[in-house]
TrEMBL record:
PANTHER family: INSCUTEABLE (PTHR21386), PROTEIN INSCUTEABLE HOMOLOG (PTHR21386:SF0)
InterPro entries: ARM-like, ARM-type_fold, Armadillo, Insc_C, INSC_LBD, INSC_LBD_sf, Inscuteable
Taxonomic lineage: Eukaryota, Metazoa, Chordata, Craniata, Vertebrata
GO biological process: apical protein localization; asymmetric cell division; establishment of mitotic spindle orientation; regulation of asymmetric cell division
Native source organism of the sequence: Agelaius phoeniceus
GO terms of molecular function: cytoskeletal anchor activity
Gene from which this protein is expressed: Insc
Protein inscuteable homologue C-terminal domain ranges (all copies): 70-522
Transmembrane stretches, start-end: none
Residue ranges constituting the Protein inscuteable homologue LGN-binding domain according to the UniProt record: 13-57
CC terms in the record's Gene Ontology section: apical cortex
Protein name: INSC protein
SUPFAM superfamilies referenced in this protein's UniProt entry, alphabetically: ARM repeat
Length: 522
């Protein structure tokens, strides 16, 4: 039996099970009641028509969220039916089939209630799905009425086949619904002259994009990136630029979005926005967020980078300026994240940063706790420092900006909340600060400053104590490399046992020794 998962990733928060049940309860209603209530016409006077249409615009996003929630419940139920079927739990299979039938009727009714236009293809799919669900329910009911194992065995393959067909029709219907809604929203973005309607449509697109990569692909395929960049090229929509750019950043996490960005010269548009001083800081920050998204080192598709290189110098210059003038930690985080990603794919970016005195600006920002206020921001800064440290001229900049002291402080980075994402960011800060120290310590002046600031004892502590590095192997390797570099410059800074265990052996042997070390030995 093929996978019965939805063709889209549902974005669901992990919450308490009772809270989840309370949220789902309103959807677990009797099918007949839902059908009767929703099929009742609501008569309205002519002068109330416009008011009704206007109020429906407020709830489009909520209606889509309800639809996605209902779709997730159906998908989950179909998966559970397959599991119960494998165990021959026929009573459970039938009761769950009835429940799915109810949810499918409710989903179709709910969608037809809030949508004002459905295609013929949509109506055909709805009928196919409803008919197949009814057939499925009748089939499982017949299975309950026989106890003959051989007959049940032969019927099981037919039930499996029907279940697979229901799942396929359901997936096709949801795909068509989401595609149609994306088309409707994009039509509003492109054709509406109303600021309110355009803003509402962009807000709904953003909510859809948050539901996962599959929704982003649908929006991109339907021309979402083209439509949104068109908004970013019209002065009359300037107040919508931040919201529009935020939506673009979400959509451009998928390859289809990136292809469209390339086709409409999106990078040139972003460069124009970043370098235009008449735009608000919020607009600049959201443009930086799009740059950070499309330059992410985690992306496997890089066709857009050729046009990026053509505009890189002015983009980097604008981002450094944004870091320097950032009024909040969030703005600094977005700008520095974009810079950090850019330094990964071209060394020319590091040279530009050096010419712009970016090292000094970043180091100064780190001393302002109002601006660099989280491990995530420090992670971006130390990423830039690590990538810039391959340049020989970088050492003198670090010394002048008291950068060694900052790197030493970063070796003590610890999560205060226990949040897994924050703990991971702290590990990256420790690892990259050790990598930066190792690279820069080829310069005797930097090595001497590191020794004076007691970097060696801290590196030893990180190597020998797994809890100090949150049991991270990547932090351990980086610390061993930095320790060996400093030991060459200052061999007197280590005790003999540390030298024999952490410096003298092959790095892999020291690594294995430290990973097997018990806390009681530290």
């Amino acid at each position: 039996l093929p996978s019965l998962c939805l063709p889209c990733s549902m974005h669901l928060m992990q919450v308490d099970s009772v809270q989840r049940w309370m949220e789902d309860l309103k959807l677990m209603t009797d099918c007949e009641c839902m059908c009767i209530l929703q099929s009742k016409p609501i008569s309205i006077e002519k002068d109330e028509q416009n008011e009704l249409i206007l109020s429906s615009q407020y709830s489009t996003c909520d209606n889509l969220q309800l639809l996605l929630k209902r779709a997730w419940i159906i998908s989950t139920e179909l998966t559970r039916i397959a599991q119960k079927l494998e165990k021959n739990r026929w009573q459970r299979v039938h009761s769950m089939t009835v429940r799915v039938n109810c949810h499918v009727h409710s989903l179709v009714n709910e969608y037809n209630t809030f949508t004002r236009s459905s295609s013929e293809e949509m109506h055909q799919l709805e009928k196919l799905l409803i008919d197949k669900c009814s057939e499925f329910t009748a089939f499982t009911e017949r299975c309950l009425q026989t106890e003959d194992e051989e007959i049940l065995k032969s019927m099981k393959s037919c039930v499996n086949e029907t279940l697979t067909t229901v799942a396929q029709y359901f997936g096709q219907l949801i795909e068509l619904v989401l595609t149609q809604e994306a088309q409707n929203l994009l039509r509003q973005v492109e054709l509406s002259g109303s600021l309110y309607v355009t803003e509402s449509a962009i807000s709904s697109l953003f909510s859809l994009a948050q539901e996962g990569a599959h929704l982003c692909r649908i929006i991109a395929k339907e021309g979402g990136v083209v439509a949104l960049f068109k908004i970013c090229r019209q002065d009359c929509f300037r107040c919508l630029y931040p919201q529009t750019l935020r939506t673009l950043a979400s959509i451009c996490c998928v390859e289809e979005g990136m292809h469209q960005l390339e086709k409409v010269d999106g990078i040139l548009c972003l460069a124009d926005i970043l370098t235009d001083t008449s735009h608000s800081e919020a607009t600049h920050a959201e443009a930086a967020a799009v740059i950070a998204q499309i330059t992410s080192p985690h992306l496997t598709f890089t066709q857009h980078l050729s046009s990026f290189l053509e505009n890189m110098e002015e983009i980097v210059t604008a981002l450094v300026k944004l870091c320097q003038e950032a009024s909040s930690g969030e703005v600094f985080l977005l700008a520095s994240a974009a810079l950090a990603n850019i330094t990964f794919f071209d060394t020319m970016a590091c040279e530009i940063l050096l010419q712009l005195n970016a090292m000094k600006i970043l180091l100064a920002a780190c001393s302002d706790k109002r601006i660099v206020d989280t491990p995530y921001s420090r992670d971006q800064v130390v990423t830039i420092l690590a990538n810039m440290s391959v340049l020989d001229q970088c050492a003198s900049e670090i010394i002048q900006g008291n950068g060694v002291q900052l790197l030493m402080e970063m070796l003590f980075e610890k999560s205060s909340s226990g949040n897994p994402a924050e703990a991971a960011a702290c590990e990256r800060v420790q690892q990259k600060s050790a990598v930066t120290l190792a690279r820069l310590s080829r310069d005797p002046e930097v090595a001497e400053a590191a020794v004076k600031l007691s970097c060696i004892p801290r590196l030893i502590k990180l190597c020998r104590s797994p809890t100090e590095r949150n049991n991270s192997d990547s932090v351990l390797v980086a610390c061993l490399a930095a320790l060996r570099r400093l030991a060459v410059m200052s061999p007197d800074g280590l005790e003999d046992s540390d030298f024999q265990q952490l410096v003298k052996p092959r790095l892999v042997d020291s690594f294995l020794l430290c990973t097997n070390m018990e806390e009681s030995f530290v």
